[in-house]
Amino acid sequence: MKKNLLYRITLIVILLAAALPGFTQLNSFSDQYLGNMFLLNPAIAGTGRYGNLSLISRQQWLGWEGAPASQSVTYQSKWSKSRDRFNPLGFINKGQNIYSNVGLGGGFFHESHGVFQTTGIHLDYSYHLYSRKGRLSFGLSPSVFQIGSSTIILADPNDPYLQNPVKSYFVDFNAGMHYFTKLGYAGLSLVQLMNSAIKFGNYGFPEIGDPSRNPDLARSAYAYAGYFFEINRSLKLKIEPMVLVKLNAINGMRFDVSSTVHLLDKFNAGISYAYKRGLSVFAGVQLDNLSFRYLFEMPVSTDLPARYTSHMIQLSINIGQPIE
């Protein structure tokens, strides 16, 4: 019953996504979801067997001066480690009050784009409810970050409202829900709920009249679903199709579709297509508690030449996992 339900959810989201127009990048850190789903949804905190420390570095449009580059460091884990039972994808639910209902996490992020940089931290809390076959979690994540520049050239260096270094500070919130079983998963997250505006002194961006119309800080929603199709049990060979629909309050909707092949719980490789933006290929390996993944993306939009490729490297460590 639940297997059919997850399959239908995945199919419906894919069909909806195929009918929607695509737009530019909404949130660079959410775009790292192929390496770390926790960046997409705080409800994922505590869904794994071990605490996970993940480091990601992403360079977009290599060769383009001032192109976006982003780095993130995250850690998330469940609150309690006593009396837990797991399968490779997460909890096995056996009885009441066996598991911790709380997941905790946090992270640091930095992005540079031209002369501007964004630097901040986030803290994440999730609460888990258990069913016979799966788990439903709800998450909330406050964040504090700074956007600014120390190299921007001002028209009037003596302006009392706008002086170097140019800086603006923000407090924002992300929220989400996530459901999964050993067969698949689905979730919804809302990011940048405060719909903030960049404003330095009396100056707003992108225009003084309406500084709130900034897509990089605008409220956004992400809906996703994925499913694990078992191909060969002895080889632990599985194919994982996934779709992600993104809605930005200013730029509108776009979608990504991806497919990942898993082998022996150690190797993975796949392909991802971001509508009217880029085509990516990626591969990863798991060695005991250490995993590595590399992603290569090539633009497919006519607005950006194909030579401006993007690259992402991820290193993850499962804290507490025994080394064989």
Explain briefly what this protein structure is.
By secondary structure, this protein is mainly beta.
Describe this structure in words.
- The chain has 324 residues and is mainly β.
- The chain has one helix spanning 2-18, and strands at 51-59, 69-78, 86-87, 90-91, 102-113, 116-130, 135-149, 166-180, 184-191, 198-200, 203-205, 220-227, 229-232, 237-248, 252-263, 267-274, 278-287, 290-299, 310-319.
- It has one domain (2-319): monomeric porin ompg (Porin, Beta Barrel).
- Strand 3 (86-87) and strand 4 form a beta hairpin.
- The radius of gyration is 20 Å and the shape is globular.
- The two termini are 38 Å apart.
- The number of distinct structural domains comes to 1
* Percent of residues in beta strands: over 45%
Strand order of the largest sheet: 1-2-5-6-7-8-9-12-14-15-16-17-18-19
Class based on secondary structure composition and strand pairing:
mainly beta
Main attributes of the structure:
two-stranded antiparallel sheet; 324 residues; 14-stranded antiparallel beta barrel; single chain; mainly beta
Write the topology of this structure:
Elements: H1 2-18, E1 51-59, E2 69-78, E3 86-87, E4 90-91, E5 102-113, E6 116-130, E7 135-149, E8 166-180, E9 184-191, E10 198-200, E11 203-205, E12 220-227, E13 229-232, E14 237-248, E15 252-263, E16 267-274, E17 278-287, E18 290-299, E19 310-319
Antiparallel strand pairs: 1-2, 1-19, 2-5, 3-4, 5-6, 6-7, 7-8, 8-9, 9-12, 10-11, 12-14, 13-14, 14-15, 15-16, 16-17, 17-18, 18-19
